[in-house]
Automatic annotation (TrEMBL):
GO terms for molecular function: transmembrane transporter activity. The lineage of its organism: Bacteria, Bacillati, Actinomycetota, Actinomycetes, Micromonosporales. PANTHER family: ABC TRANSPORTER PERMEASE YTRF, MEMBRANE COMPONENT OF TRANSPORTER-RELATED. It is found in: Cell membrane. GO terms for cellular component: plasma membrane. Keywords: Cell membrane, Membrane, Transmembrane, Transmembrane helix. Residues 264-381, 717-833 form the ABC3 transporter permease C-terminal domain. This is ABC transporter. It comes from Catellatospora bangladeshensis. It is a multi-pass membrane protein.
Length: 841
């Protein structure tokens, strides 16, 4: 029995070619994901580990400096062979094009050179005296600089330095720290670099101190214990082994995050593959009804038939998994080679990746084929006398009932939530309801096919091609629905994310245009940096300026007069700039910061605060010993505002923010009576400052939306794998449908149909199925996206922004998919021999 089935499978490889393609693509996605995440973690572990460090000491607050005297005391401790203070400061590398690269992190992008394992020379040597500098290899490549070139480095406070590049290095961090872009010799670094948190214009020379201290010695635990006893509670001291383990754990955690994110897309691709495989086996079973009946008639038991079909699925699963694992490993290694990774790339192919690939390939194929195997086992021996095989009506009714229940339950779960009380559990409930309703639509796809295509067939009566194509699509709604559902899965998720993106884009655009005047001129920090007070002072001195706002954001704790304390963000800025250079949308009370603070309206609702309440705001400031010293400020709630990305949280007069509070400011907003003259004046004032970008409101919007669009583009590419698998499903369905209708096509040709008419009929049927899948995917996707944006943004579900361009492109793409997918099946149908087709059974 088993040998007979396997021979039949080998004799009709064309029937299962597209099924193999679906298995291979799904497995390859999973394996490639595992290989990329494992290789990324191995790259970090292998290329960035230091073995020379006994312990690392640093203040508990990131912006506190360690005095030189403390470094000397640590160097004299028992067991410490050497103590090295590490200088960190603002340093932004300017490229050949006069712009900053994206690899620099200007807040901590400069350091001092030392002979430790921090630096791994790639070319040249380390800097030894003033006028020399070494560059991190990725920063040097992006800047277009190499050994021997002059390099310009911005130092903050309107200062810069030009030095000759003498070396290029790869950096090995200790714990969590950013790679520096430049390294000077110790004396030059102390003289030029301004420590983070130091006053504007200050340098390490005028504010003596180090960002951290590296300790060297033979006994790591003894060195760390002695340093802890010497420094006290204001500092953290980590042994070298702990730092290495932390780095390995962080690498594994980052790899796990990448893996989980990509596996979610792999699951979508596999779900599409399930429909393709199940549809293929269902059609294969239908085509072999007489064969199964004859086997039953000669003594084969139901269990034997069922096991034989499952054995076919196991063989297909093994072959597809083998090819998929090989393709996935190759794709994963290729992706690691193409990724912009600094240093030596480590490639890792774990046994788990291979085992998971085989497990997924076998499980998906066997589960997809199980229903068809049961159906084959139920074939009666009497079916050998006839060739037709009707789908049991009860299964369609049960499937429809389950779909209706799922949709109703999903809608109810969403309806039981409200935007005003959208807590975390409620968000999970709403999202679960959306997914449940989405699966309900998948279950109802056959009935929806009848409901959509039958009326459409009555309307589109022009020409025999359309009538026959519509009739063929409607004759087996389960098959049509399964083919269309594979398309719907990928397309609905693309439309869902596109709906979320369109809604978030519309919200961001409206909030930015509401907050920033049309005639405002913006100064923004380049390359993830922030703007210091010299930028603000220089901008304020520009002629033609009438108002200026330089918001700075940070974290605080709100202590309300009643209820629990709540963490929040604050935005400190000048009262004169609020309402002129920046305009918050005030929903209640006054927008004058001189009267008190403005709270985000949603935050106020969550904490029960109202206009007129007195609140205490607790800020964390850096103490002299490195500890965090809380400072409280009392203020009156003057008004409530709609929070936005530009003006988040608690709006407060910057004069009330205590000194030493860590904050972040990357933008300055300026307005004047003549927008053009003001912009020209600011561009001239900062012509020599590539770390300061002058732009208008629309350019700001483009920058804010660019990163978001890149993320959406990546999502579309990853979901495209499911669409590709679905296309194979359309080809497979049509090809098997042509085989199934061999006799019908022969009669059609015998009655006078030309080959061109046959080809057009098959193509039209393909377009009908693809468009149905497209309409189903777009409709379900937009509604799913509406719930997703409701969960994320707390906007009402039906206030989402419908992505009409995406929907239009998707429908056109589905029509094109239908045409392309039908090329081979239509050609095969048209070339069928008339006499042989009529005689076929």
């Amino acid at each position: 029995m088993l040998r007979a089935m396997l021979r039949d499978l080998r004799a009709h490889l064309g029937r299962v070619a597209m099924t193999l393609a679906a298995i291979v693509l799904g497995v390859a996605f999973v394996v490639a994901t595992w290989v990329v995440s494992d290789s990324a973690a191995a790259t970090v572990r292998g290329g960035a580990q230091r073995t020379d460090l006994a312990a690392l000491a640093q203040a508990r607050t990131g912006d506190a400096v360690i005095p030189a005297g403390t470094v000397a005391r640590l160097g004299a401790l028992p067991g410490v062979s050497r103590a090295e203070g590490v200088v960190e400061g603002y340093a932004a590398l300017v490229g050949r094009d006069g712009k900053l690269g994206t690899t620099s992190w200007p807040a901590t992008a400069g350091t001092d050179w030392d002979p430790s394992q921090r630096f791994d020379l790639v070319a040249g040597r380390g800097p030894q005296h003033a006028g020399e500098v070494a560059l991190e290899q990725q920063a040097a490549e992006e800047a277009g600089l190499s050994v021997g070139d002059p390099a310009r480095v911005l130092l903050g406070g309107d200062r810069s330095d030009t030095a000759t590049v003498v070396g290029v290095f790869a950096y090995r961090p200790a714990g969590r720290e950013f790679d520096p872009a430049v390294a000077y010799d110790a004396d030059t670094a102390t003289r030029l670099l301004r420590p983070e948190g130091a006053p504007d214009g200050a340098t390490s020379g005028s504010v003596p101190g180090f960002a951290r201290v590296e300790l060297f010695g033979a006994d790591e635990q003894a060195v760390a214990a002695a340093a802890r006893a010497e420094l006290g509670a204001g500092f953290t001291v980590d042994p070298g082994a702990a730092l290495r383990q932390e780095q390995a754990d962080n690498a594994a955690e980052d790899g796990d995050i990448i893996r989980k994110a990509l596996l979610a897309f792999a699951a979508v691709a596999l779900l599409a593959g399930v429909f393709v495989i199940a549809n293929t086996f269902n059609m294969l079973v239908t085509q072999r009804t007489r064969q199964f009946a004859l086997l039953r008639a000669v003594g084969a038991r139901r269990g034997q038939v069922r096991r034989a079909v499952l054995a076919e699925s196991v063989v297909l699963g093994l072959v597809g998994a083998t090819l998929g694992v090989a393709l996935g490993v190759g794709l994963g290694l290729l992706a690691m080679r193409l990724l912009p990774v600094a240093g030596t790339v480590a490639y890792a192919v774990s046994p788990w990746a291979i085992l998971l690939g085989y497990a997924v390939g076998l499980l998906v194929t066997v589960v997809s084929a199980y229903g068809s195997a049961r159906r084959a086992a139920r074939v009666s021996p009497m079916a050998a006398l006839r060739t037709d095989a009707a789908v049991p009506r009860r299964s369609l009714v049960l499937r429809t009932a389950l779909g209706l229940v799922a949709v109703a339950a999903g809608v109810a779960l969403v309806a039981l939530t409200s935007p005003e009380e959208l807590t975390e559990p409620k968000r999970i409930q709403a999202m679960a309801g959306a997914v449940l309703a989405w699966f309900g639509v998948l279950l109802m796809a056959p009935v929806l096919a009848l409901g959509v295509l039958r009326p459409l067939a009555r309307v589109l009566r022009r020409g025999p091609v359309t009538r026959i194509a519509m009739r063929n699509a409607v004759r087996d709604p389960r098959r049509t629905a399964a083919t269309a559902s594979a398309l719907m899965i990928g397309l609905s998720l693309v439309c869902a994310f596109s709906t979320v993106g369109e809604t978030m884009t519309a919200d961001l655009t409206s909030s930015v245009r509401a907050a920033v005047p049309q005639d405002a001129v913006l100064l923004r920090a380049a390359a993830f940096g922030q703007l210091d007070d010299t930028v603000r002072a220089k901008a304020a001195a520009v002629p033609g300026l009438s108002a200026l706002a330089a918001p700075r954001t940070g974290e605080l704790l709100v202590l309300p007069p009643r209820g629990r304390n709540a963490e929040a963000r604050f935005t400190g800025l000048e009262p004169a700039g609020l309402g002129t250079a920046l305009r918050p949308t005030v929903t209640s009370g006054s927008g004058d910061l001189r009267r008190g603070v403005l709270l985000d309206a949603r935050f106020a609702a969550d904490t029960g605060l109202r206009v007129g309440d007195t609140v205490r705001l607790r800020f964390g400031t850096a103490g002299k010993d490195g500890a965090v010293a809380p400072v409280e400020v009392s203020a009156t709630v003057a008004g409530l505002h709609e929070g936005s990305d530009l003006l988040p949280g608690v709006l407060i007069d910057e004069a009330l923010v205590p000194d030493g509070v860590d904050g972040w400011g990357d933008s300055v907003y300026a307005v004047g009576p003549d927008h053009g003259a003001l912009r020209n004046a600011l561009e001239q004032a900062f012509a020599q400052r590539p770390d300061v970008v002058v732009q208008d409101r629309e350019q700001l919007l483009d920058d804010l939306l660019q990163a978001f669009q890149l993320v959406l583009g990546l999502v579309y590419v990853l979901l495209g794998a499911a669409v590709v698998i679905a296309v194979f499903g359309v080809v497979n369905t049509l090809a098997l449908s042509v085989l199934e209708r061999t006799r019908e096509l022969g009669v059609f040709r015998a009655l006078g149909a030309s080959r061109t008419l046959v080809r057009r009929t098959v193509r039209r049927e393909s377009v009908v199925i693809s468009l149905y899948g497209g309409l189903l995917g777009i409709g379900a996707g937009v509604l799913l996206g509406g719930v997703m944006q409701y969960v994320i943004l707390a906007n009402p579900v039906f206030e989402m922004a419908v992505p009409w361009p995406t929907a239009g492109v998707a429908l056109a793409g589905m029509a094109l998919v239908g045409v392309l997918a039908a090329l081979w099946p239509a050609r095969r149908a048209a070339r069928a021999d008339i006499l042989a087709a009529i005689a076929a059974e």
